[in-house]
Please model this.
Amino acid sequence: MKKNKKRKGSGYSKINYAVKRDCPLAKLNEDTINYKNLNLLRKYVSDTGKIMSSRVTNISMKKQRILAKAIKRARVLALLPFAGN
Model:
């Protein structure tokens, strides 16, 4: 009987680990992502008050920058809690 030999590469190349997901904010305009839209901003802030990363939320880099700026403005105006409070 022949033994099954392991092939080089062991089959990992067949699995696609980098699955692209759509940005959840792609349909929204840049105007709707602002410091006054607290329901939207609270979805992307953790329980400790930190901004969630784009790796976790699957937001595009352009929308992540706009979202981070809106969250920081809301913090300055005391609409959202600061990180560490």
Observations:
- The chain has a mean pLDDT of 83.
- The two ends are 68 Å apart (CA to CA).
- Helices lie at 38-43, 54-57, 61-76.
- The CA atoms of residues 41 and 71 lie 6 Å apart.
